[in-house]
């Protein structure tokens, strides 16, 4: 199964500001809301689950500063529960999606109990889904929808910290089918695009690697796009021409030495010498990194962009929305934004309003129903961003 709109649903409780949220995703979704409303926390659910599968539970928690830094700070919570539903394995479908749940509970200070459950279809046609359940180091494998079903295999992990999902993904597929590996591969390849502009400005060692999450290899990724996918590169330059006054073309230079590195220059109309990327503005470099990812002809299944509007002119946001919408035919796009200008360009089904309960501090996601939003937009001359900014949809500072 290779489906662009792979991620279907995320539910989370006890995780940072997420007391109890349940979010459904389409091919292109944008989180909208004020600072502190929980947009980043929800996106971090995927990152945290990915890290527990890649490494182990203890290391993933340590990377975030300890269990108290991921646990809901309401004085009562001791348990984190995260569920990801996606259509990624060979026999999954919209009606029988793959579902992975990770639960962590602090039984006493410094002692964290872990439970993992993966449900997936091992074979095609009707029938129960395969179930892998791990409690601590003990793993049971059998059939079952919600309950344990008929358990016919038992395994032991090396320790209570070791990920059952990561371990099962490496086992012989004849034993478990491809479900665990498919789900692990999906999580592992999610692109969390958050360009670090200072790193993106620098020359990059020549390679054919895809754009890194921090865009530190931007020069090399652009050169590869130019060489291997000239149509995509030309489209990227047309986008830049719409956003950057006087822009004419991107040019490349080579720096020799122990390893060949690529430098990027921007040629402008009426200017004798091109501008090195190292001298380009913050917004220009960030826009170039985002467009490089969005014109990638072979992207991962899921691309996440935090603060997509950061440092960009409103004219660039119009272009960026169209490019994200087009790219969502190749990679599912989830982004976060604070910009009414960007939200004005979105369809109701692409908007997820985020808010926070002023009494409890818990995130409310979604804070406004998409169907209600469509009805409201049909009744008014205002655009979605204008309605949101006015406070009519919630998700604004109070």
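^ Assign residues to that structure.
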């Amino acid at each position: 199964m290779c489906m662009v709109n792979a991620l279907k649903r995320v539910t989370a409780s006890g995780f940072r500001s997420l007391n109890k949220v349940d979010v459904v995703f389409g091919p292109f979704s944008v989180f909208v809301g004020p600072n502190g409303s929980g947009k980043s926390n929800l996106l971090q659910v995927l990152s945290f689950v990915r890290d527990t599968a890649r490494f182990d539970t203890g290391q993933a928690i340590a990377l975030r500063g300890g269990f108290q830094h991921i646990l809901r700070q309401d004085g009562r919570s001791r348990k984190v529960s995260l569920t990801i539903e996606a259509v990624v394995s060979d026999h999954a479908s919209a009606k029988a999606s793959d579902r992975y749940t990770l639960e962590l509970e602090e039984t006493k200070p410094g002692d964290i109990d872990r439970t993992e459950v993966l449900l997936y279809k091992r074979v095609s046609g009707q029938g129960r889904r395969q179930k892998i359940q791990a409690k601590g180091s003990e793993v049971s494998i059998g059939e079952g929808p919600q309950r344990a079903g008929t358990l016919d295999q038992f395994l032991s992990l090396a320790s209570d910290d070791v990920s059952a999902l990561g371990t099962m993904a490496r086992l012989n597929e004849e034993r478990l089918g491809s479900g665990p590996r498919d789900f692990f591969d999906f999580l592992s390849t999610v692109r969390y695009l958050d360009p670090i502009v200072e790193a993106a400005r620098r020359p990059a060692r020549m390679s054919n690697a895809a754009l890194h999450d921090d865009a530190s290899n931007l020069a090399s990724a652009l050169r590869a796009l130019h060489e291997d996918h000239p149509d995509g590169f030309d489209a990227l330059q047309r986008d830049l021409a719409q956003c950057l006054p006087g822009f004419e073309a991107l040019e490349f230079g080579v720096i020799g030495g122990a390893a060949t590195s690529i430098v990027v220059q921007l040629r402008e109309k009426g200017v004798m010498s091109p501008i090195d990327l190292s001298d380009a503005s913050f917004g220009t470099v960030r826009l170039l990194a985002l467009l490089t990812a969005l014109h990638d002809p072979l992207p991962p299944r899921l691309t996440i962009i935090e603060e997509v509007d950061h440092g960009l002119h409103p004219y660039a946001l119009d272009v960026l929305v169209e490019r994200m919408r087009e790219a969502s035919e190749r990679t599912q796009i989830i982004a976060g934004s604070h910009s009414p200008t960007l939200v004005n360009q979105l369809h109701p089904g692409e908007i997820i309003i985020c808010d926070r309960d002023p009494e409890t501090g818990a995130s409310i996601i979604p804070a406004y129903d998409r169907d209600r939003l469509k009805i409201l937009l049909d009744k008014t001359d205002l655009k979605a961003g204008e309605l949101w900014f006015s406070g009519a949809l919630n998700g604004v500072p109070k």
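Residues 348 and 374 are 6 Å apart (CA to CA).
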